[in-house]
Specification:
The protein is built from 17 helices and 8 strands. It is an alpha/beta fold. It starts with 5 loop residues before the first strand and ends in an 11-residue tail after the last helix.
């Protein structure tokens, strides 16, 4: 299956525009489609500003910048996609909206073209079910900003043919990305394995074991994460972060590992969405005083170990259920969300037995299924094995 030189992207928001810019930079002719002329104008203006900055910084000459921009057609008609070898939808995260669009795309593009969705949480199988030819449909989950972030999760549906998967993976490599194959399960890799970074931090805060500034300090200072979980939730926005958590929780049949926090829900209900609204867990309004952490190393270590153990546990279960390989999961978490280390490599470094001891301690204290140990961790702990011995290419 040859994708060819023309790419179509539907949705001129931040993600769709970023994918269009990425494809044009790689040399493709691109049709960026959106029903809103205003959205198209914003995307065009934003791209022009981006390339202007790149030229000013000497990272690109003006002729190349103009050439890339000249390869992008901004259109409010889906007919602009008709000659695309790959059509990517990047619209609102709603099953009904995406399904309607995918049907329209299938009626527009050629029978040999690949259709992809950039969904971060919806079922690829459910989306593909609306198509006459789901064998050419799959998920290509980019991370924001798409031109910069290296990871792309490649998610086949139950009907996706191998040739479509191969063509998509090869194209992502040509674009300079690191494609990682993921199973069509709730949250795929990143949005599944990352849930405990937020969820367990919220649990620690909800039960009064530490304040938000101290938890963030512990994860930055001891864990070396770029942002603490509360800073990151505020940055993402609770309208996005909470909804993804709730979606994964519901899709996983209400597994308590993914249970959302009422504290975060109350912020969302109050309109305190984080940075975008000026208030979230932190106050971003002019003159606001930032809370100071309790810089207690012993407390910080306990916080870090508890959160990390839950992340590792979820990553281990992702291996157990074939969501991806050990290498694939570690690559996804380092390339997609900038974790300082892959969680499974981290488990090897600290010792699987230590991770299991932390989880067993939490289970003994709380007696909740939330803290059950993944069978993969239990087996490795008992045998003295390591994830290093399970590694294979994604």
């Amino acid at each position: 299956m040859d994708i060819g030189t023309r790419i179509g992207v539907v949705g001129a928001g931040t993600m769709g525009a970023g994918i269009a810019q990425l494809a044009a930079t790689a040399g493709h002719q691109v049709a960026l489609v959106d029903l809103s002329r205003e959205a198209l104008d914003r995307a065009s203006t934003s791209m022009q500003q981006t390339f202007k900055r790149l030229v000013e910084k000497g990272r690109m000459d003006e002729a190349r910048a103009e050439s890339i921009l000249g390869r992008i057609q901004f259109s409010d008609s889906i007919g602009a996609m008709k000659n695309a070898g790959l059509a990517i939808e990047a619209i609102v995260e709603r099953l009904d909206a995406k399904s309607n669009l995918l049907r329209a795309l299938e009626d527009t593009i050629s029978e040999d073209a690949v259709i992809a969705t950039n969904t971060s949480s919806l079922s690829i199988a459910a989306l593909g079910a609306v198509l006459h030819h789901p064998e050419r449909f799959l998920g290509l989950h980019f991370f924001n900003p798409a031109p910069v972030m290296q990871l792309v999760e490649v998610i086949p549906g139950v009907a996706t043919e191998g040739r479509a998967i191969g063509a998509a993976r090869n194209l992502m490599e040509v674009w300079g990305k690191s494609p990682v194959l993921a199973k069509d399960t709730p949250g795929f890799i990143v949005n599944r394995v990352a849930r405990p970074y937020y969820g367990e931090a919220l649990r620690i805060y909800d039960e009064g074991a530490a304040d938000i500034a101290t938890i963030d300090w512990a994860m930055r200072e001891i864990g070396r994460f770029r942002m603490g979980p509360f800073e990151l939730m505020d940055f993402i926005g609770h309208d996005v972060n909470y909804v993804v958590t709730r979606t994964v929780w519901e899709a996983m049949y209400f597994d308590p590992r993914f249970k959302p926090s009422l504290t975060q829900l109350r912020l969302l209900e109050a309109g305190r969405l984080g940075r975008k609204s000026g208030q979230g867990f932190y106050d971003y309004r002019p003159g606001a005083v930032a809370p100071q952490p309790q810089e207690d190393r012993l407390l910080g270590e306990r916080i870090f170990e508890r959160v990390l153990a839950m992340i590792v546990n979820e990553a281990a279960d992702a291996v157990l259920y074939g969501v991806s390989t050990v290498d694939g999961i570690d690559a996804a978490m380092t390339l997609g969300v900038n974790y300082p280390k892959g969680p499974l490599a981290w488990a090897d470094e600290l010792g699987v037995k230590r991770i299991v001891a932390v989880l067993d301690g939490l289970m003994n204290e709380y007696d909740e299924d939330r803290y059950r140990v993944s069978p993969v961790l239990r087996r490795l702990s008992g045998s003295g094995g390591r994830f290093k011995e399970m590694r294979s290419h994604a």
